[in-house]
Design a protein that fits this description.
Hypothetical protein af1432; Nucleotidyltransferase, domain 5; 3 domains; 48% helix; alpha/beta; 6-stranded mixed beta sheet; 22 helices
């Protein structure tokens, strides 16, 4: 007798993992996450290209070969799930099963054979889940989310973290390949005709597009390779629209051999590159967006985010991630809040975005203490750059990495700063250096102990930073902090003075 996966989930004990099986038009993917968490951590991730929607535009039916591949691999996935301790298991299907005349029939076949409950998403539901996934990674984002799959594209207008408009269009990369093979001009006409149906297209203008989907991640990977970009992480990769449209134009005019020579994409997906580039180019030109930001989070993460409480959803994923890392390496009793509050008088004009990164830097201020002192600053810099953190664009990563490296006394010449300075405006770079310098001094003054920084007042007045303390309450070694005070003075372009205060006589 076959095990019923849904029943099995109710009686499992131990680690509360969550699984999502995504049956897409181009591929199927099983992802197992560590738990229902604000920052979902994948512990298993496997994808198979089935191309279920390959014949959708020609026949209106699912590909027979694709169905066979899907059945074989879903059999493997369900056997794995039976042996995993899952709290929840979500199975979602998108455009191919939604639109194919035999889509429901195939879903029922899978349900009977593997004891699954498949949620065939409507276009609007798919758009909502995709938006929730991106919002979980970029809280309070303001822009357009565009999720390109094999069978459809979902467009969502998000204003300061709120979903305002959404639509699903039959512009999948897989289904449109047949049009491209026949006539590229017909492909362009089809894309523009479908996009003209979006009544709120005017809301795209001068706002970022957050791009979701494997086909577009391939384009980002190719662009990184062509641009010799130093940080090969897709999530948070940001490109100005004008330069990217020119690059997409080059791709649409390239032969298959030329595309393969560009690198950055597997041969299995090379045939989708030109059509994916054409869709994105048309979208950027019609929408007049100012930039594009790539997101690794989408529909699967949306399934997790949807089931969180509203209180959990409001939490900042970056700060949660930083807290998890810090808690596993913490050696001091000094809290990040005490350190941040002590440093704040130096950063009164810091905007909300950089204030958030100041908080993150304070949380991570001692996460690399166990590394060898000779390599600590550089290792901290590289680890934060490669940190699988969400809620950060690449310039944010460089900002945070610089701040923590300087906190550890990092030598900027050793960091090959020229390579990274292209990713961050000069003004933000200097702000990061100031934050790192202030944190370094604060940890030395307090020796990492809680309560001591509350006894040391820091005041900034134009060209002077005053550090005031009462010797009877706290002892400060001027020799120990001399170099750090000198660096503070250099980065803030201020003189730094230590002022001792007399203790008040008891009454």
């Amino acid at each position: 007798m076959k095990k019923n996966i849904k029943k099995q989930l109710c009686y499992k004990t131990g680690p509360q993992k969550v699984g999502v099986l995504d049956i897409g038009s181009n591929s199927i993917r099983l992802v197992i996450y560590k738990g229902v968490d604000r920052v979902p951590i994948p512990v298993f991730n496997e994808k198979v290209l089935c191309k279920l929607g390959e014949d959708l535009e020609k026949t209106g039916r699912l590909s027979e070969a694709g169905c066979r591949i899907a059945i074989d691999n879903i059999a493997r996935f369900t056997k794995l799930v039976e042996r995993m301790e899952l709290l929840e298991f979500h199975v979602v299907a998108t455009a191919a099963l939604r639109e194919a005349v035999n889509g429901s029939e195939f879903a029922e076949k899978l349900e009977r054979r593997f004891n699954l409950r498949i949620n065939i998403l409507s276009g609007e539901s798919e758009a909502t889940l995709s938006a929730l996934g991106v919002l979980s990674a970029f809280p309070n984002l303001d822009g357009i989310i565009a999720d390109l799959g094999g069978g459809s594209i979902e467009l969502i207008n998000v204003e300061t973290g709120k979903i305002r408009d959404r639509t699903s269009l039959p512009l999948g990369s897989l289904r449109l390949r047949t049009l491209q093979d026949c006539n590229p001009s017909s492909l362009m006409l089809t894309i523009k005709s479908e996009l003209s149906r979006v009544s709120w297209i005017s809301k795209f203008e001068k706002r970022p597009i957050f791009a979701v989907g494997g086909s577009w991640r391939n384009l980002a990977r190719m662009h990184m390779s062509a641009d010799k970009y130093p940080l090969r992480i897709i999530h948070g990769y940001k490109i100005a629209t004008l330069s990217f449209v020119l690059y997409l134009e080059k791709i649409t005019r390239s032969s298959r051999d030329e595309l393969e020579a560009m690198g950055g994409v597997s041969k299995k997906r090379i045939d989708e590159v030109a059509v994916s580039a054409t869709i994105l180019k048309s979208l950027l030109e019609i929408g007049k967006n100012n930039c594009i930001i790539f997101s690794a989070f989408g529909i699967r993460e949306g399934c997790i985010f949807k089931h969180l409480s509203s209180e959990e959803q409001k939490k900042d994923p970056l700060l949660i991630n930083c807290e998890k890392i810090a808690s596993s390496t913490r050696r001091f009793t000094l809290t990040s809040n005490e350190l941040e509050n002590w440093a704040l008088p130096l950063f009164k004009n810091l905007d909300k975005h950089n204030r958030r990164l100041l908080k993150a830097a304070c949380i991570l201020s001692d996460f690399a203490w166990a590394d060898h002192p000779s390599y600590r600053a550089r290792q901290a810099f590289l680890r934060i750059l490669r940190f699988p953190a969400i809620g950060l664009t690449h310039d944010d990563k460089v900002f945070l990495a610089l701040a923590i490296s300087v906190r550890y006394g990092g030598d900027l010449s050793d960091l090959e700063l020229g390579k990274w300075s292209e990713l961050i405006p000069l003004e933000r770079l200097h702000t990061a250096l100031k934050i790192g310098t202030a944190i370094r001094l604060g940890i030395t003054l307090s020796a990492g102990l809680d309560g001591l920084l509350q006894q040391i007042e820091m005041v900034k007045r134009k060209k002077i930073i005053m550090i005031r303390y009462t010797p009877e309450v706290i002892s400060i070694s001027r020799e120990a902090i001399a170099r750090k005070v000198e660096n503070l003075s250099k980065h803030f372009n201020c003189s730094v003075e230590l002022e001792t205060l007399s203790s008040q006589p008891s009454t």
